[in-house]
Amino acid sequence: MCINLINGNIYVGSAGLNRMYARFRNHLYSLTTGSVLVKQAILKYGQVNFAFVVIEVAGDHTRKSVLASEQKYIDKLNPEYNILKIAGSRLDSK
Fold first, then answer.
1. Is residue 7 helix, strand or coil?
2. How many domains does the chain have?
3. What is the model's pTM?
4. Is the residue at 82 inside a domain?
5. Domain limits at 10?
6. Is residue 89 part of a domain?
7. Can you give the pLDDT of all 94 residues of the chain as single tens digits?
């Protein structure tokens, strides 16, 4: 989860254990991957005002398990920075 420490807005995502740093980097620096809304917010509020937090480690680490955990938190928290509300889906993302 990425948390804006100024306004409390959040982004919920998922990554394999060996991909955490890459996902973090994508949200901050990549022009083609990561959340556009998170990038815009970081430009507006500054990187120092964001925290990236692991909120759960999926039990068996399978893609299905990881996406199920991500979906649980999307449904529970209704994150402001998530454009897509279905974990793992890229439908209607353009």
1. coil
2. 1
3. 0.80
4. no
5. 2-77
6. no
7. 999 999 999 999 887 667 766 766 766 666 566 678 888 998 899 989 999 888 888 677 788 888 888 999 999 999 999 988 888 765 444 4
